[in-house]
Amino acid sequence: MNTKLLSIEIIALPGIPLIKAGDDLVQIILDGLQRAELTLQEHDTLVIASKIVSKAEGRLVDLKTVTPGEKAHDLAEKTRKDARIVELVLRESEQISRYAPGVLIVQHRLGFTCANAGIDQSNVDDREDCVLLLPYDPDKTASELHQRLFERTGTKVGIVISDSHGRPFRMGNTGVAIGVAGMPALVDLRGQSDLFGRELEISMQGYADLVASAAHLLSGEGDEGRPVILLRGLQHPNGRNRAGRASDLNRAAKHDLYR
Fold first, then answer.
1. What's the whole-model pTM score?
2. Could you name the CATH architecture of 7-58+135-249?
3. Domain ranges (residues) in the chain
4. Cross-strand bridge partners of residue 240
């Protein structure tokens, strides 16, 4: 029996400002750490809301600049959605998974399946006709943040860029990782033993999604204004699970029974 006391801390960095295109997220994170009187430590993990990454990357779109095509108009009529938003969804997607009145589920160009290609209007801009696209390449952005924080602090930390997704057979959204660096994304438990010595044969852990969901307990989805969360005390798995990308979490089509 393992009697060692284990714990993690989950800390929302205070005073993160509203982000604008071109803002330096590394400096903003370091300023938040300073306000909290914290310095980064080995094994720390930062979970950063995709929304502020998108804003910093200039992924805000004014719908008045969008001209829907014929396919977007047709799908908008079937889903009862704004044809301009449907046009953006189509541009950001590989294929349509499901649609119905009020519902549009797609396979995003980043490989995962989600509603409306992750395009959002909440907490975006005070202008009514603006929407925010997901970051262009969140794995790449996570890697850049990981490297730049190391250059500024001398400390290697895990980075998760998070979003919130619904689930096909469960109510409510949960946090998911759409960008990962400096830590595992998917942990392969096959070959390890359970409590009774039986070998695990199929167990895979969506590690980065678990981290994102833990952070979402503090970051929220409304007016909380807490887009950067520090998790302290996580012991990332070693060996073959050590480095990863969020794309590791995408299930291959040949293994997907519901696509």
1. 0.89
2. 2-Layer Sandwich (3.30)
3. 7-58+135-249, 60-133
4. none
List pLDDT tens digits, range 14-27. 999 999 999 999 99
Name the residue among 243, 56, 31, 238 with its Cα closest to residue 153. Answer: 31
Give the model's pLDDT for residue 239.
Answer: 47
Does position 87 have pLDDT exceeding 70, yes or no?
A: yes
7-58+135-249 and 60-133 share one CATH topology? no
The pair of structure tokens assigned to 210 is 């678990």
Residues 6+ apart with CB under 8 A from 238: none
Distance from C-alpha of 240 to C-alpha of 207, rounded to nearest angstrom: 13
The CA distance from 217 to 46, in Å, is 14
R_g of the chain, CA atoms, integer Å: 19
Cβ atoms of 135 and 118 closer than 8 Å:
no
Q: What CATH fold (topology level) applies to the domain 60-133?
A: CofE-like fold (3.90.1660)
Q: Tokens standing for 74?
A: 């047709």
Question: At 131, which helix (H) or strand (E)?
Answer: strand 130-132
Q: Bridge-partner residues for 160, per DSSP?
A: 47, 180
How far is 226 from 11, CA to CA, in rounded Å? 10
Helices marked H in the chain — which ranges?
25-35, 50-56, 70-79, 83-91, 138-153, 207-219
Burial call 217-239: b when 16+ CB within 10 Å, e when fewer: ebbeeeeeebbbbbbbebebbee
Q: Which two tokens stand for residue 28?
A: 């903003």
Which phi and psi angles does 4 have, rounded to 5°? -70, 135
DSSP-assigned letter for residue 200: P
- For 174, the enclosing helix (H) or strand (E) is strand 170-181
* Polymer length of the chain: 259
CA 15-245-219 angle, to 5 degrees, is 25
133 or 192, which is more confident? 133
